[in-house]
Structures are given as C-alpha cells and as structure tokens.
Write a structure and sequence with these properties.
The chain is α/β, with parallel strands linked by helices. About 40% of the residues lie in helices and about 15% in strands. It contains 21 helices and 19 strands. The protein has a six-stranded parallel sheet, sandwiched between helices. Strands 15-14-16-17-19-18 form a six-stranded parallel sheet, sandwiched between helices. It has a five-stranded parallel sheet with strand order 10-9-11-12-13, sandwiched between helices. β6, α6 and β7 form a beta-alpha-beta unit. α1 packs across α2 and α8 runs parallel beside α10. The mean pLDDT is about 90.
Length: about 575
C-alpha cells in the first residue's frame, strides 16, 4: 500500500495530538497544505494574514496548552516573516514545529524565485534544523523534529522542497508519539534532607517561583503555607499560586512590587523553583543569602546566583518529597512582616484601582477586567505598559491562564495569543489587552478572529503614544523623541473587519462596553479605550533610575524652560521609601 509523503507527515502530526496548524498557503508549501485539506476533519488549518502571527500563535498555543505548536509558510519571504514568533518560542522555551516551503529539488541552488537559504537563516533559532532531501523518510524526520522540540523545549524547523511531499511512499511509518515520555532525574533523599535543614535554620526564607513550576502549584502552595514562606512569582508564572494568596508578594523587578524588592534584599535563604530569573540586580546581594535552585535544565543551575543546593529535577516531584516532611519551620515573623508590607502596598493599589477619570485610568481598566473575568479566563497580555498594568492589577488564579512574551518581549503578541487561546479553549473567554502601538503591529489579523467566529475580547489601551518607551527614555535621562502615535478609530476598524467595536472614554464607559463584550458568542469584540498617560513606576526606584529621571528633568527644563509633567509626588516618594 502506498500513500503520499505529505499524508505521512500529517499522520505523524495527528499522532502527536496536534489540533491546529497556523499559517498561509503558497506555492512552495502547497503540497503539505493539500494534505491538511485532505485531513481537515482531524487537524484544523488556521489561515492567518501574516506569517509572524502564525508563528506567534503557534508559540502561544504551546505556552497555553503545554503541547506542540505548529506553523507553516512558504519559503523565502513567508519564512522570513516567521522568525520573530519563532524567537519568542525559543526564548520562552516552548516546543514549536515550523514547516517551511522551498523550491522544488530540481531548482535548488539555481537562484530560483524566492529561494532563500532557510537552514542558514534559522540556524540560531532552532534546536533541530533540517532540509528534507528525500520523500521516503519524511515521516521519520518529522517525528525526530517533534521529539527534539519537546525534549529540548525549543523550535524545530523543517525546510521541505515542494515536490517531495507529493511523492508516493510505500508502507507506513510508526512514529514515537505514543511511547514518548520525559522523566526527570530522581532526586537524592540527602538533598531533600539538606533543603529541609536549611529551611528549618533560616529566619527569612523566600521562594521565587517561575514558569517551570507552573504544574507544581498545589505542591508549592502547601509548602509555603506549612512553612510560613512568602513567595514571589515571575511574570510568566502568574497564577501558579493565586496572585492574591496571603503569602504572595507579587512580582519582582521593574514591573514588580516594593514589598517583593524589599523581601529580596532581606532574605537569608532564597528558594528558586523553575526559574532562570535574569534580572540579577533584583536578587539578594552577593553572599547575602543561601540559595537552593530546582530546575529541569541543568545549565540553568547557578547561572544567576551562587548556589548551596542545585537540583536537576521536576518541581512537582521535588516539592512533593519535601512536603512529606511536614512543617520544618514554625517561625512566621518574616512572613508576618512581609504581609504587613504587602498590606500597605495593596492599600495603595486599591486607590489606583478605584480611580474614576475621563479619559479612563489604565489601572481602573485592568481592575475592571480583573473583577469581571470568568474564573477560567485566558489572558493574553501584550508588551508595553499593558505588561506593567497586568502585573499589578490582574490577580490571576490557578484556574486561569496567563500568556505573555516573557524573554523576547515582542510587541504584537497579544492578538495572536488570543486567537490561539480561542482555538485551544473555545469554551473559555479569551481576553487580550494591548497598547495601541502593539496592537497596530498585527491588527490585520483581527479579521482572522472574525473569519473563524472566535469571540475574543481585544482591549486596546489607547494613549496615542509608545508609553513604555516614553518612560524608558526618561529613566535613562533622555528627552522623549518620536514616541507619539497618530490616533486611529480602532472601534470602526473592528466593525469594518466584521467584528464588534466599542469606544470608551471613561471608566464607566469601559465597564459598560466590557459587560456587552462578555455577551458575544460568535464574534470578536474590540474595545478602544482612551486612557490617561499614567506612569507605571517601578515597584522600587533604584539608584540608576533616580539619576536618569533627575537628568531627564534637568534637560527638559534647559530645553523647554518649564518643568516636565511628572507622576504625583506622593507616588514617587512611595517608590523611594
């Protein structure tokens, strides 16, 4: 019995439980697309309007589901467009398979139309990067590519000359999907005993929990509750334990809370679980604290802070072993002090949540979403000030999902993620929040949500500027330049695309529009909300930032003969002291 190689390729995808492929058809990938057409009842091909969106959606699908994300494009220009989304997958360590078209085998190396050396182009982004040279082993190489992506948590790229998938191949390939499994190394009991002893002896223990521990939320919650440990979640790990848990100090860093910063600078024992947190100035001072790190990537161990215990192991398994020892410490003084600090922070944030202004206040807009979102909502938060407000005003729960572009920080990630979320979880409400600068980068694919009747809610935070860059320039002591954006009626755009568009110019109008948006079941909704240019100040203004703001103010006065508009003095003082 013979079949086309393309059907063998699709069969391997199905066996690996791939439900969606994001991309655009075209001449050099059409034999693969034709196989997807023949199997459309098993795998849904989601046609996007830009290949970058395909790759970002595939990356987000992997982040949200834990499975393999898949995207495809023609060779040449289409493949080049995909690079940004694939780098997002690489840097956030999620498995993605990219299928790239190529000119036919007889035209390779002839300088043919749209021929690009994709293996060389994608060399840095990929953990597996092959060009298919024969049809007989196409299924086997696809299987190998997927295994590499899943094992190494990265991007696998296959360049496929378009004639090969159309060839007939004999027999069927038995892929490794059913047999595949990843088992973390067993942890030595002596290391568990060592961690327990260190916790028992510490006076100010602190847990820093990352995305790699997302599946271990219940075990970690038991650990911190039983042993009176305050914890900090990295941004992509929001919701691993409820953001409003009594032991939570929020996030740490420029977008974090002041209590988290102060706890980091006070702790004598830092427990890092599933994180390779890169912002070392926000970690304890060198030599200040003992440190334990648990990670499934051995190369991460000790890369940010000197370790006393390094464990190459699965977070859930390790913490479960530790929990078997019960309470190893009863001292709650540090936790109580952190909670008092957090109470003061929350009272301040409560003031911000209750702002009632026109234009709307971004803090109140995010608070309105936080207070009304379903318990199983899927959040897709874009890069910019949206990231800041999401960090502080969305209290994500373990029953919800939260997706961002964490390490690459690419603007325009919100809408593609919401599309992927709506395809993966059609029964859940998918909410994307983007600034006007970020949304404009991918806005054409709002019509993709229209085409597939995806009832996503897209909020556009409209302040007619690149606000995060505004504050970056100021904190660096630079005068603002080319940050203003021409306004656009995004609500009318949404309606022109076939969706629903609302414009809100106050907090009350936004709440009304949001309530209506929740009622839509087969159309995407866009809420264009005009907001005040409120500054998302760092949780703690550190020395270099203070110098930068002072330099900015001096330059502004010298150039414009007036004092620049700044955040309220009480806000600035709170960040300092």
């Amino acid at each position: 019995m013979s079949t086309k190689a393309a059907d063998q390729l699709v069969s391997v995808l199905m066996n690996w439980n791939v439900k969606h492929v994001y991309g655009l058809p075209g001449d050099s990938i059409d034999t693969t697309v034709d196989a997807l057409r023949r199997n459309q009842d098993k795998i849904k091909f989601v046609q996007v309007r830009h290949e970058e969106v395909a790759a970002l959606a595939a990356a987000s699908s992997a982040k949200l589901t834990g499975g393999l994300g898949v995207c495809l494009s023609i060779g040449g220009p289409g493949a080049i467009h995909m690079l940004n989304g694939l780098y997002d997958a690489k840097m956030d360590h999620v498995p993605v398979l990219a299928l790239l078209g190529q000119v036919t085998t007889g035209d390779i190396n002839e300088g043919y139309f749209q021929e690009v050396n994709t293996p060389k182009l994608f060399d840095d982004v990929a953990v597996f990067n092959k060009t298919i040279s024969a049809s007989d082993n196409l299924g086997k190489i696809v299987d190998s590519a997927i295994r590499a992506a899943m094992t190494k948590k990265g991007v696998a790229v296959l360049t496929i000359p378009d004639d090969l998938p159309d060839h007939k191949v004999s027999g069927s390939y038995q892929d490794s999907a059913t047999a595949f499994g990843l088992n973390a190394p067993k942890v030595d009991d002596a290391q568990i005993d060592q961690i327990a002893t260190m916790l028992a002896q510490s006076q100010k223990p602190l847990a820093l929990i990352g995305k790699g521990a997302e599946h271990a939320g219940k075990e970690l919650q038991r650990l911190v509750e039983t042993n009176h440990i305050p914890f900090i979640l990295t941004m992509p790990a929001k919701g691993t334990i409820a953001d409003d848990h009594a032991n939570s100090l929020g996030n740490v860093g420029k977008l974090g809370t002041k209590p988290a910063y102060e706890a980091m600078k006070s702790t004598d024992l830092l427990l890092m679980v599933g994180t390779n947190y890169p912002y070392t100035p926000y970690l304890p001072a060198e030599g200040q604290a003992k440190c334990i790190q648990i990670d499934t990537c051995p190369e991460n161990l000790g890369s940010r802070y000197a370790l006393d215990v390094a464990i190459d192991g699965d977070a859930a398994a390790v913490i479960s072993q530790l929990n078997e020892k019960g309470a190893v410490r009863t001292d709650d003084r540090f936790l109580t002090a952190c909670q008092k600090d957090m109470d003061s922070w929350n009272r301040w944030m409560s003031e911000k949540r209750g702002l009632n202004t026109s234009p709307a206040s971004p803090e109140a807009v995010f608070a309105a979403v936080d207070e009304t979102a379903p318990k199983d909502a899927v959040y897709s938060i874009d890069v910019g000030t949206s990231t800041s407000w999401g960090a502080r005003f969305l209290h994500v729960q373990p029953t919800q999902k939260y997706s961002i572009s964490a390490w690459l920080g690419t603007m325009g990630c919100g809408l593609p993620s919401a599309i992927a979320g709506a395809e993966a979880f059609p029964e859940r409400k998918n909410i994307s929040i983007s600034g006007d600068g970020a949304f404009a980068m991918v806005m054409q694919d709002f019509v993709t949500a229209v085409k597939y009747k995806l009832p996503i809610i897209q909020v556009v935070i409209n302040n007619q500027k690149l606000a995060f860059i505004e504050y970056e320039q100021q904190s660096a002591g630079q005068l603002n330049y080319e940050i203003d954006l021409e306004d656009m009626d995004y609500a009318k755009f949404a309606e022109a695309a076939g969706g629903v568009g609302y414009t809100a110019r106050s907090n009350a109008e936004f709440k009304d529009a949001l309530a209506k948006a929740y009622g839509e079941s087969d159309r995407p909704v866009l809420i264009n909300v005009y907001v005040k240019d409120n500054a998302p100040l760092p949780g703690k203004i550190v020395g270099e930032e203070a110098k930068g703001y002072t330099k900015y103010g001096t330059q502004y006065l010298e150039n414009y003969w007036k004092i620049p508009s700044m955040p309220p003095l009480k806000d600035i003082m709170r960040q300092f002291f």
